[in-house]
Every structure is written in C-alpha cells, then in structure tokens.
Amino acid sequence: MRHLPLRRLAWLLFAAFLVLFPSLFREIRVHIATEVLTYALFAVSFNLLFGYTGLLPFGHAGFFGLGAYAAALIISHIHGMPVLVTLLVGALAGFVAAIIIGSVCVRLSGAYFALISLSFQMFLFAVAYEWRSVTNGDDGMSFVRPDLYLPLLGKISLQNFNNLYYLTLVLASMGIIGCYFVLKTPLGNAMVCVREKDVRASFLGYNVFLVKLTAFAISGLMAGLAGGLFAIYQEVVATTCIDNNMSMIPVLMVVIGGPSHFLGPVLGAAFYVVLQDWISSMTGYWMIIMGAIFVLIILYLQGGLASLFTSSRVWRGGE
Amino acid sequence: MRTILKVDHLFKDFSGLEVLAGVSIEIREGERHAVIGPNGSGKTTLFNIITGLYRPSHGRIYFFDKDISGWPAHRIARTGISRSFQVINVFPKMTVYENVRSAVVSKFNRRFNWVSLLDRDKPIEEETFRIIELLSLTDVSDVPAFELSYGKQRHLELALTMSREPVLIMLDEPTAGLNSEETKGAIQLIRRLTEGKTLLLVEHDMDVVFNLADRVTVLGYGTILATGTPDEIQAHEEVKKAYLGRK
Amino acid sequence: MGLGIESYIVQMVHGLVYGMLLFLVASGLTLVFGMMGVLNMAHASFYMLGAYLAYTITGHLGSFWLSLLICPILVGLLGIFIERFLLRKAYKGGHISQLLLTFGLFFIFGESVRLVWGGAPLSVASPVILAGDIHVAGMTYPVYRLFILAFSFLVLIGMVLLLTKTRIGIIIRAAVTDADMVGVLGSNVPVVLMAVFGAGAALAAMAGVIAAPFSSMYPGMGADALLDCFVVIVLGGFGSLYGAFLGSLMIGELQSFGVLWIPRLALVFQFLLMAAVLIWRPTGLFGEKE
Which residues of C touch A110 (CB under 8 A)? Predict the structure, then answer.
C-alpha cells in the first residue's frame, strides 16, 4: 500500500501544529488540548477492545482510575520519584490489573462481558471509596505536580503549563502511535479475526482466549498511562476517576468519533472535550446535547464522525 | 495403509438429547471418505467433536495414535486437521487477501508477533498469493468477503481450510448451494486439492459422493448404519431403507 | 436496635420490601432481554422517571393515587415510543448498537432529570391513610412499607395470571423462549415486543411511584437501581421471570442484612457475587443450563 506524498505532508503539518500549539493559542486552549490528548489515549485504548477486538467494556474506567490512583499515591508518598517512572508505574498498574481482570472477563462476550467489566470497575470504585485511609474516599487526594528532570534539559517545572502540554503530547502520542503499530502486526490482525469470526479464528489455530486477553492487557496498559497523565494534569485524584461516569466517557467518545477508523476515538475525544468546553459555558444542557448526539450517531451515522471524512465504508479497522 | 483418524465409541448428548450414540470410524491415510446420512443424523456434530468445537460425552478420538479427545479447537487445528463449514464462515469485512493471510500467519506460527508489520512481510505475502491462485481467487483478492458471489465465497471457504496445508481435510457439505456446473468444478477442485492427502467429507449430493469417495460411512440417528465402498453402500439394504434415493 | 428475633424479622421484611420493588423493575428488564436479546440500559430510568413524575403530579394534583395511575401510563407510552421509533431503527446495527442506544438514553434521562428537578434529593409524602406505624406482636413497622409489599404482591399475582392464563401471556412467554417461532406461528411479534417493552417500563415506573414516599429521589437513583437490576438478572438468569423474582428477594435481603452487618463491604460483595455468577453459571443460579 503506497502512501501518497500528500498524506505524509498532511501528517507533518498536523504534527507541526501540535508542537506549535502553545505558541499559537492562549493558555486556556492549551489546557483543553492537554485534556484532549489524555482522553484521546483513553479512548484509543477503549477502541482497541471495542472497534478492533469486538468487546464492549462498560468498566474501562477501572484501569484509567488505577493509573490515576497509582500516580497520586506515588506523588503523595514517595518524594523524588521521577515523573516518568510514576507514569510507568501507573501504566503497569493498569496492565497487571487488566491481565488479572481480563482473564476472567474475556471468557464472556456481548452484554455479559459489558456487565462483568462493569462489576469489576464497581468493585474498584467501592475499594477507592471505602478505603479512606489510603485514598481519602470521595474527597480525593490532591498534590502538586512534581518537577520533571530530563538528562540534557535538566529540571522542567510542570507548573508551567506548556511543559505539561509537551509531556502529555509526547507520552500520549507514543501511546497512540504504539497502539497503531501493534494493530498493524499479526497480533493486531488476530484481534480483528477474533472480532469477525472467533470460531473460524480458533479453527485456524488462533487461541481466541489469549488473543482477547492480550488485547485487554494492552488496552489496560494504555488506559493506565492515560490515567496517570490525567492525575498529573488535574493535581487531584478522587473517586470520579474510577466511577461509572468515567467509564461512560470513552464509550461516548468512541461511538461519536467512529470505532471503525483508527483515529475515530481521537476525533471523538476532541469533539467531546471541545463541545463540553464550548457549550457548558452557555448552558447546563451540554450533557444532554452530548447524549442526543450520541443517540443520533447510533441511529444515523454508525461509522461516527470519522466516516464523514473517509470514504472507507467497510469496517476494516487498521486503516 | 495406516489409520490416520480413529473415532472410538463416540457419544454426545446435549442436555439430554443424544445426538451421537456410539460412533466408531477409522479413516485410512490417503483415502477420500464420505459421511452421509439424513438430516439430524449427527454428521456435523461428529465433525464438531473431531475438530474440537464440542467435547465428547463419552468416547475417544485418536489422530495418528495421539489422543486428541477434548482438545480445544485451536490446538487440534495446529496438529494438521482443518475443516470447512457448511454455512460460509469467513471473515466478512476482510478482503479475500486478508482472509487468506490470516490463515497463513497462523500457519507460520506468527499469531502473537507484535513487533513486525504484517503488510511488509514478504514470505507471508508470497504464500498468501500462492494459495489465492490455487483457489482461483486472484481476480477478487481485494474484494471484501461479504461482497463476493456465493461461488467465490465457497472458494474462499476452501482456501481458508487449505491454507494450513492440513494432513486431514474435513469438508462439511462443500457443494451446498452450488448449481450443477459449479458442483462439477468443485469436485475437480477438491480432487486436485486433496491429492495425496486424506479427505473426510460430509455430503448430501450423491453425485459428489460417488465421484469422489473411496469409502462411505452412513450415519443414521447417531449411529453408524454401514461402512464400505460406494457400490457396497448402494446395495446395502438398511441404507436403502433409511435413506438412499434422495438427493 | 436489639439483637432479638424481632429485629431480624423487621430486617427481613425490609429486605422483602426492597426485593419486591426491585422485582417490579427487574421483571421488565429480564423479559425484554429474553425476547429481544437487548439489555436495556435505560430501563431503570423508567423507575426514576416514575418517581420524579410522581413528585410533580402529586405536588400539582394533590393526590398520590392519581400519580399511581397516571405515571405508569405516561412512562409506558414513553417506552412504547422508544421501542417503536428508536430501538427498532437501531436493530440493523445488531445487539451492540441497541445496547449502546439504550446506554445513550440512560445518559440523557439521567441528565434531563437533573436539569428539570435539580440535583438535590426530593421526597414525596406518603398518602395520609398509609402514614404511621403498625404495631404487631411487639414489633413496630411502618404501614407504608407493608402497603408496598401488599401492592407488589398484587401486581405479581396479576402478572402470573396474565402470563399463564391469557392468550397474550402465553404468546409473551413463547416469545421469550423463541421469538422467531412465535412470528412463524402467526402472532405479530413486533407488536408483542412493543407491548412488553411498554409494560415493563410502566411496571418500573409504578415501582418508582410507590417507592417515592419510602425513599428519597436523586438523579443517580436510576444508575443505582440499574446496577441492582443487573445483579438480579445475572443471578436469576437472563429472560427468566422466576429467576428475577428469586434474585430480587436475594438481593433485597442481602442489602438489608448486609447494610447491617457489613455496611462497607455490602456493595463490594454484591458485585463480586455478580462476577462470580457470570463466570461459573452465566445462565443464572436459577436459569436453565444452556
């Protein structure tokens, strides 16, 4: 498949735009961009399961929240821990939890899978809510963003919001690009096979359970990373990071953005955050409008917003 | 000639409904063996148990003297047994190329490879095209499977079955839904593809059976009514009573 | 609260009350899943709407009994509308599309309620006749809760009679087992689906109305009830009314005693129970083995 030079150019321009963003826009917009990047990673991790492997989890906030709480706990209790290590631990928390929880969940599918994923997230929520001595319950933990130390650049204060933006940009992009490439490997192909016809896949020699578990684990890893980034951005982590509402957010973003295109979730995340910011300043109705858009897209535009931009009408995944 | 597959007193019941009641068959290496029988006699269930979709309630299955009873489907698939489906079971939204490639990836044991780009893999690409040509699918290799004509879909179904170069090929009604022209072509194709291999075939179409099979086993109500050459079966009283004469 | 037998009985009756309410809500959910294969995420929103509408109607018209009459009808019509014009449209996208659609509706209803009635908890006074406590065998018990129990049992009996003695009931039961077959036999399946969906919504709303004086209303009550319903139908088996009944009672008692004995773990335990059942007996503790 040959890439047109035009495509490459478009991507280059887009990357330049992202890098130059803080110089082009006011700080409030940079805040929004940071949020979009974090949620985009979360949504992409969700779509790894939904769009590509065909599993719909209603409890994905469990891994996001674990990443957030891991980061918050480390920042609050272990002074001097490098930021990157903190985020790595958050990601690993999501990864390990996903392996454990996934080994149970992926034995089911459809509504059953959605519900059991939800029940595990509710369990994690209940733990976060009740274990006040560690998590401070629904009041949450607040902390100050630690400084980032890099080999050549020295100390980078994350209180400077542009620096936080760049950190998020780099890490979220790495996560998203990582997902993109994994989906282009035989493993990614296996995930799509499992989505399409899992019985046929197993007759071809694919261990469907392991494929689903692997997808689940990678998804948990990325969600944990997103959660850690979210924690650092918010400077506070409460049960809202791990509740039903947070589980709903990637669902909204991915369906609105479009699950059949790799960048659909990213588009959905941008749409969600921007719309929320724009409309909530005008009216308290923004959630209803979001819900209405969600419903309309399910009824009339199953491919999501992404399908407006791409001619591919076939749900291929991996484009 | 040695026995490649041995089914030993196989029983299967689904919540009280007994579908297979003591089936024993021996498939010889290199033969083309057809299983026929009226609807509901358990043919597809037999296939499903041999290939690992269901577990036997009682009885054992041996492949080259190895006990494979109760093995999961993916493990059995990796030992050299492949099957096709009566109802087309391909990956609908993938193109023909992507469908076959998925099977080739499995053959090369690269299923969990998460570091190399699939599109850039030359050996897999070449092998995929080889199989596509073998099954006369070259002209539609970029077409999504759900858009193919029924005849081409059947070819793709066969392609997926053949991709792993199985030793035992199990075809479940491969000519279902084909007209007589297409059926003739299918018979030729199947004969060509199974040259030197072992074929186990479920069929309703007697022309196909008489054209292809070395031996025939007749299944009725979950048990074996008779086994023998097509001619022997044709003359068999019980079989005639139960079934023969219908297409 | 003493540890005497009386307090156990009181707790048990509490559990029964909540269990019956839960059953009224969960019954529609499980029937719809059995018939359509769709888990209606918005179902408990009907419960919530029933309660909030009762608040408004009782407030305006002054009569709780009128609410009990009107609210289920209104919500039932809403249910019919949703099935006919929204769910059916999403049908071609498959079960997942329909599931997501109901999810979107759940979201919208939750926010709408917050918008119209505000986020603060509201309450409705119980009708004067049913206020106060009753004293029996040395135990004191609120009359209203006994009313809930009695009313729910009446509705249950009505449901059982409808499903076993009437033609429409038999069709419904058949459709839960095999919707295609019922269509082949000549019954108008789409109409039956619509009716069941609407009736389930009405039942849930009815539960909301009678629950209103008993517990306060808040925008999150739909979500909480939904989660309880999920646990119930997982325990009882998707599609099984009998299972939903037993499951509801189980959860009712579990919450009643759980809140007493292990308040902080009750919620956790409930979800681990659901997870356990989903793993080992996905067809439910009381459902049929698939």
Answer: 95-96
